[in-house]
Amino acid sequence: MATNHLVLSGTITRSRSFHSPSGIAHSVIMLEHKSQCYEAEMLRNVYCQMQVIFSGERFESVTDKLKIGVDIEVQGFIALQQSRNGQNRLVLHAENVELKT
């Protein structure tokens, strides 16, 4: 059995919502994470940006709150997504979200 679970907190820097051709509601945000973590007994500044996708009815109650500048914590799984220009990136598919502000 393989495990694929990620918890990431940060600030929303981009946000958009749409419905797929099959009628499923989606919200896509860019989450910016900044923190400090210890690695090899040394404090390291950590920074990343990750696209997060919220799909389905379960997130419709929070979609209007997923705005630029809002701090959130997201739990979900990561998957590879290929952009239109052929570049691969990891994307977080949300299973749970908590608003921090």
TrEMBL record:
Which terms are listed as keywords in the entry? DNA replication, DNA-binding, Primosome
SUPFAM superfamilies reported in the protein's UniProt record: Nucleic acid-binding proteins
- Is DNA-binding there in the keyword field? yes
Top-level taxon of origin: Bacteria
Matching InterPro entries: NA-bd_OB-fold (IPR012340), Primosome_PriB/ssb (IPR000424), Prisomal_replication_PriB (IPR023646)
Q: What does this protein do?
A: Involved in the restart of stalled replication forks, which reloads the replicative helicase on sites other than the origin of replication; the PriA-PriB pathway is the major replication restart pathway. During primosome assembly it facilitates complex formation between PriA and DnaT on DNA; stabilizes PriA on DNA. Stimulates the DNA unwinding activity of PriA helicase.
User: What's this protein's family per the entry?
Assistant: Belongs to the PriB family.
> Its quaternary structure?
Homodimer. Interacts with PriA and DnaT. Component of the replication restart primosome. Primosome assembly occurs via a 'hand-off' mechanism. PriA binds to replication forks, subsequently PriB then DnaT bind; DnaT then displaces ssDNA to generate the helicase loading substrate.
* Protein name as catalogued: Replication restart protein PriB
User: Which species is this UniProt entry from?
Assistant: Shewanella nanhaiensis
Lineage of the source organism? Bacteria, Pseudomonadati, Pseudomonadota, Gammaproteobacteria, Alteromonadales
